[in-house]
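hey
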């Protein structure tokens, strides 16, 4: 989180059921192959036999299957594939990165020399440019100045969260409308509300640099889990000794390391009349470390880092555009999400949670958002 390492937790419940439902629907007439899979896929075997178990109860009936039928069956049942999202950057972003490092002042470029001639993988002007390697090199050079990038792994055991009053938001159903007259006593308690349990004995581990996702139906407590892991309770009650960040209990983490865990709510909140450049340069300025490279001023270095992050996330064309909101015209919804990702990157928070991050986004924009999160977790 959503997400900086993204604070999203993988739900394992129901995986077996989903895997079964992901298969093809069972037909009335099922074919069972007799020969090994290797023999069926072999190009040298032109014919293969199979036994048909029909719905009429006749078993053991055999016939020859031609190679064309075997190929058709293979096409109808393709093997399952697993695709991993990688950090990527388009050509426009590479050109913008190259321009930034070329036009940077000598005081900055002399200390942060990314574009090395002997390594085209970290040269933005090269066709062999590798964004993850570039980001790691950039981070290592910043760490050389004494700015160590923090990494956090989260462990929670027997996590129980309770809510009452305004903090308790239960999913309403049709039956609640008809049962409202019989529950008048709940509205006559004059501020005294019962405490209800939302999360029951949750256990889990989120490793550093890991992207996970929380899945659940509305009202199942997904947002509550994200808020509990980032310490954004605001009326909720949780056992703070159940959550640890690299061995540090949550109570101490919130008190002494505030800003290291970040929660991004469903609706992005920005100053709508500020441009993307002004928003991200301010975010970089408030988190600029005291040990910045060379003899550069704090303002110079913060603007330099902000422009690098803007180029990496493909927001260079929106630099002078207002962020906007539902009432002020500005960037698109997907670009506004990437502005939030950029703020997370510039804040340097090692653990971040994103609540319903792809709300209102199409599939292409949602994929760009996930790739932007992958950039933040490199």
């Amino acid at each position: 989180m959503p997400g900086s390492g993204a604070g999203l937790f993988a739900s394992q419940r129901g995986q077996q059921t989903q895997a079964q439902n992901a298969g093809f629907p069972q037909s009335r007439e099922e074919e069972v192959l007799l020969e090994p899979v290797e023999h069926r896929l072999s190009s040298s075997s032109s014919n293969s036999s199979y036994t048909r178990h029909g719905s009429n109860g006749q078993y053991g009936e055999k016939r020859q299957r031609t190679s064309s039928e075997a190929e058709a069956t293979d096409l109808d049942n393709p093997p399952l594939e697993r695709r991993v999202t990688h950090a990527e950057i388009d050509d426009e972003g590479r050109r913008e990165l190259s321009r930034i490092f070329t036009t940077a002042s000598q005081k900055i470029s002399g200390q942060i020399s990314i574009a090395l001639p002997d390594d085209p993988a970290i040269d933005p002007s090269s066709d062999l440019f590798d964004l993850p390697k570039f980001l790691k090199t950039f981070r290592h050079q910043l760490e050389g100045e004494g700015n160590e990038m923090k990494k956090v792994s989260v462990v929670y055991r027997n996590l129980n969260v309770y809510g009452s009053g305004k903090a308790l938001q239960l999913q309403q159903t049709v039956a609640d409308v008809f049962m409202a007259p019989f529950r008048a006593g709940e509205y006559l308690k004059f501020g005294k509300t019962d405490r209800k349990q939302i999360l029951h004995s949750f256990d889990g581990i989120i490793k550093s640099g890991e992207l996970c996702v929380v899945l659940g139906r509305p009202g199942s407590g997904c947002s509550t889990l994200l808020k509990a892991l980032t310490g954004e309770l605001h009326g909720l009650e949780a056992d703070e000794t159940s959550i640890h960040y690299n061995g540090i209990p949550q109570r101490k983490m919130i008190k002494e390391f505030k800003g290291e865990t970040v929660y991004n709510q469903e609706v992005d909140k920005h100053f709508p009349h500020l441009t993307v450049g002004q928003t991200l340069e301010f975010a970089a300025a408030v988190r600029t470390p005291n040990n910045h490279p060379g003899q550069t001023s704090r303002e110079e270095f913060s603007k330099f880092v902000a422009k690098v992050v803007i180029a990496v996330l493909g927001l260079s064309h929106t630099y002078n555009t207002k962020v906007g909101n539902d009432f002020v015209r500005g960037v698109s919804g997907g670009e506004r999400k990437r502005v939030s990702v950029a703020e997370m990157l510039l804040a340097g928070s090692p653990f971040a949670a994103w609540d319903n991050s792809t709300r209102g986004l199409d599939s292409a924009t949602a994929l760009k958002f996930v790739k932007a999160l992958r950039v933040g977790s490199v």
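The chain has a mean pLDDT of 70. Residues 91-147+267-376 form one domain.
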